[in-house]
Amino acid sequence: MLKDILENYENYQPGLSIDCVIFGFHDNQLKVLLIKIPHRETWSLPGGFIPVNQDIDVAAVTVLNERTGVDGIFLRQFATFGKVKRNDQHFSKEALEYLEIFEEKAKWLTRRFVTIGYYALVDFLKTIPKPANKDEIIEWIDHKEVPELILDHKEILGKALATLRMELNLMPVGYNLLPEKFTIPELQKLYETILDKKLDRRNFLRKITNIGILTKLDEKKSNVAHKAPNLYTFDKDKYKEVLKNGLNQGW
Amino acid sequence: MLKDILENYENYQPGLSIDCVIFGFHDNQLKVLLIKIPHRETWSLPGGFIPVNQDIDVAAVTVLNERTGVDGIFLRQFATFGKVKRNDQHFSKEALEYLEIFEEKAKWLTRRFVTIGYYALVDFLKTIPKPANKDEIIEWIDHKEVPELILDHKEILGKALATLRMELNLMPVGYNLLPEKFTIPELQKLYETILDKKLDRRNFLRKITNIGILTKLDEKKSNVAHKAPNLYTFDKDKYKEVLKNGLNQGW
């Protein structure tokens, strides 16, 4: 696919790329979608180039879809990364020769690239990646076990994670990530996993209740040995309203 | 200056620019620094291009300094703007001829540009702009009175303002924007001006006090007809600490 792009490199913005950080929640782990391309030992974030006739927000969706088969995700831009030397070691002379990339194409590919970061927090179970070609491996990897990544992708991932954590203070999270009916401890676990810290049970209950997005159901969780915890569901209208207006912790 | 850049356009990232939104607080107005260049009727944000040998964060400082003479400001990146058609009407054929920009230089200048937005909230009294050339006009304009701007600069300004408002929920604001000693009503006015809404006096007092960054002085404001309000100052160490860790409204 890189070959196709290089054949038509004039149709892409020079020196500008997009990288996507896709988080999924599963088994009380916050996982991130990573790709390993052929002939490379290290993993990378799914990324690509910007067609000159596509808005960058559209290009982000295209790039993610082409690299991972994943579609229909609302991607949020979080930062742009542009250190001078971020990609100057990326393609060695040998790699370019191996890939049969020469002259103008090699020049286009090895020039300085600035990259725009997009992220999303998605439903792990509904987000099934399919590699664009059979040599590529795509995997969900626990964010705590992420191996070495190419370029500055660790920094990009770190910034996306910091943004996600900050957003917990601005908007509700959980819809689409938890089952339809859930307990407060399950919701708390989601927050604890994202924030990577233990939260006080009473404090969490008070704060999450105050947001006004939860509906307490007339059911208890079954198959629980001890005192069965209450089940809750999100009040979708209120959830949407809070998403739009932000958590009411403002001035 | 554009001429100098075009003479050496290969030393700049193609299709990528930086625009700066500089806010200043004065006379209970939130003002923004705008430039009017020669031969154009409309105003613009101070912006420019990215030298291939500069990190983008460094280039932002350079661009701001070269366009406005303003230096020593901590600029924060807030978003990147990349709609396909954002600059395709910017330089007409006539304008290019008038400016004597032809061929490769014209092609470089009129290609699709993505722009990275940076913003800062600065001390109005210490931030004295100096135009880079005598035909340019630089002015502080009340954000509510901003005239027509070039390209998508209104959208960029709007997004910077939204980011600033959101940041009021994440970090303290006011240091360097208010005199050394100030009253709570003065601080409240700063918040009200940025947020563009009235705040409840008691609520504001409670919230701002809870942050723990204020030191109540043993002085009252003089020259006040009625009941003189207390004077406060920022506890600089605590202010810095809260800036670093964020407002404690988290989970």
Q: Could you explain the architecture of this structure?
A:
The structure is a homodimer of 251-residue chains. By secondary structure, chain A is of the alpha+beta class. Chain A contains 8 helices and 8 strands; from the N terminus they run αβββαβααββαααββα. Chain A has helices at 2-7, 56-68, 93-98, 103-110, 153-167, 184-195, 201-211, 236-245, and strands spanning 12-26, 29-36, 47-51, 76-81, 114-122, 137-142, 214-220, 230-234. In chain A, strands 1, 2, 3, 4, 5 and 6 form a 6-stranded mixed sheet that branches. In chain A, strand 1 (12-26) and strand 2 (29-36) form a beta hairpin. Chain A is elongated, with a radius of gyration of 21 Å. Chain A binds chain B through residues 13-16, 50, 52-57, 59, 77, 79-84, 112, 114, 116, 166, 168-170, 191, 195, 199, 204, 207, 246, 249-251, and chain B through 13-16, 50, 52-57, 59, 77, 79-84, 112, 114, 116, 166, 168-170, 191, 195, 199, 204, 207, 246, 249-251.
Report a brief summary of the structure.
Two copies of one chain form a homodimer. The first copy, chain A, is of the alpha+beta class and 251 residues long. Chain A has eight helices and eight strands, in the order H-E-E-E-H-E-H-H-E-E-H-H-H-E-E-H.
Question: What characteristics describe this protein?
Answer:
NUDIX hydrolase (chains A, B); 251 residues; hydrolase activity (chains A, B); Arc Repressor Mutant, subunit A; six-stranded mixed beta sheet; 8 strands; WHD_NrtR (chains A, B); Nucleoside Triphosphate Pyrophosphohydrolase; 24% strand; alpha+beta; 8 helices; hydrolase (chains A, B); 2 domains; homodimer
